[in-house]
Amino acid sequence: MVKSFRIIGTSAVFLLLGWTVPADSRQQQQQDKPAEKQQQPAKPAGQSQPQAKGQQGQQRQQQQQQARGRQDQQTQQQRQQQDNSAKQQQQQARGQQDQRTQQQRQQQDNSAKQQQQQARGQQDQRTQQQRQQQDNSARQQQQQARGQQDQRTQQQRQRQDNSAKQQLQLARGRQDQQTQQLRQQQDNRAAQQRSPAQVRQQQVAWQGDRAHSWQSEHRTWQQRGGYDGYRVPDDRFRGYYGQDHGFRMYSLPVMYVGGYRRFQFGGYWFGLVDPWPEYWSNDWYNTDDLYVDYYGDGYYLYNRRYPGDRIAISFYLN
Predict the structure, then answer these.
(1) Which residues does 1 contact at the CB level (< 8 Å), separation at least 6?
(2) Chain CA centroid to CA 35, Å
(3) Residue 6: per-residue pLDDT
(4) Would strands 290-295 and 254-257 be described as parallel, antiparallel, or unpaired?
(5) Residue percentage of the chain with pLDDT more than 90
(6) In degrees, to the nearest 5, what angle opens at C-alpha 51 toward C-alphas 50 and 52?
(7) Comparison of pLDDT for 233 and 33, the residue scoring more
(8) Do 302 and 291 contact (CB within 8 A), yes or no?
(9) What is the mean pLDDT of residues 137-163?
(10) What is the 3-state secondary structure of 177-240?
(11) For residue 82, is it within any domain?
(12) Which of 111, 130, 146 is the last residue of a domain?
């Protein structure tokens, strides 16, 4: 672009010079002609025509040189202006180029910084996720270890409790067995000490409580409206009552109270609310193994020889 501007400017200067020089020469010729006409009549004496022509030629040369000097000065000024303009344009172009380059570098730097920041952010995020996963894994392992430890501790406690329960059950079983043996011995001694008259009297008394049709005459505690009497304490019940603690009626104290027969067993009195079934043997109270148990809705007397039958009984403190 700058070179083209220079070529165009130089061509314009030459064109101007082409038009200007002929005009100056014409003016000079017109000026010279009157001078010649004026000088011809006033020729000084003693001068020849060749000298006058030489002076005129020198003047013309001087004028031409001056015109050329002025033209060269103008051309120099124009060239200087063109050079200055070209330099300014070059400087502006360079400035714009530098500005664009600076902007591009700034954009590149910003883009690189953004990419670095994004890469760092992604790396930090991955590092955070890895740490979180490691922490979660460590927590899970700790929880699993604690759970396993708790499970082992629970199992150990359970085994210890089971062992203690078994030992207690064995001890209670031995104690109950010893107690049962003592009671059996006492019952045997009591039976041996009873006289035939006492045996006949007891048979007559028990015959009065015999049912004519036990299926229609007996009623469960639920049919009676529910059991609302006293209850044997649990620890006492486990020690003397239930299927594991049998007895025979003839060895126990028996008495009538309010029209109901009562018997004492395990330190407490029980009253027979139902009659005993008519199909039981006549001396069941002497020969059959009995036990007291709590079934669903109240206390009952059970006969091992007749496991499907149960006689409702009441619990009394005295």
Answers:
(1) 89
(2) 118
(3) 54
(4) unpaired
(5) 21
(6) 90
(7) 233
(8) yes
(9) 87
(10) HHHHHHHHHHHHHHHHHCCHHHHHHHHHHHHCCECCCHHHHCCCCCCCCCCCCCCCCHHHHHHH
(11) yes
(12) 146
